């Protein structure tokens, strides 16, 4: 019975909600992994590293605001680039004297 509930949870998480942010995806992945591991007849402590990265992502990633777009910002890219080649610097070569 519990294994059927874990499969149903995995299917529901795959479909709902349709748009998932990285924090929500990490939390849902950890929940599905824990649900599957609870159905096992022999639980081993080394199953913890399977879940730990997703729990840490869920806890440490900042929550995305609902009004904030998930698309990459490209409007600030021209201001971040140098205007000409004279502004760019490179490391001196080992072959040429300083």
How are the secondary structure elements laid out?
Elements: H1 2-15, H2 22-38, H3 48-60, H4 77-80
Helix pairs in contact: 1-2, 2-3
Account of the 3D structure:
This protein has a domain at 2-64. It has 98 residues and is mainly α. The radius of gyration is 23 Å and the shape is elongated. The protein has helices spanning 2-15, 22-38, 48-60, 77-80. 5% of the residues are buried. It contains four helices and no strands.
Q: How many beta strands in the DSSP annotation?
A: 0
Residue-averaged pLDDT, rounded? Answer: 76
Which structural class do you get from the secondary structure elements? mainly alpha
Q: Low-confidence parts lasting 5 or more residues at pLDDT below 50?
A: none
Features:
about 100 residues; mainly alpha; elongated
What can be said about this structure in brief?
The chain is mainly α.
């Amino acid at each position: 019975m519990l294994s059927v509930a874990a499969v149903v949870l995995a299917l529901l998480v795959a479909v709902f909600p349709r748009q998932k942010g990285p924090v929500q995806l990490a939390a849902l992945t950890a929940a599905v992994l824990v649900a599957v591991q609870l159905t096992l007849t022999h639980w081993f402590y080394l199953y913890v590293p399977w879940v730990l990265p997703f729990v840490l992502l869920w806890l440490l990633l900042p929550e995305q605001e609902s009004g904030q777009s998930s698309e990459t910002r490209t409007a600030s890219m021209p201001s971040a680039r140098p205007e000409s080649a004279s502004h760019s610097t490179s490391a001196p070569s080992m072959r040429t004297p300083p």
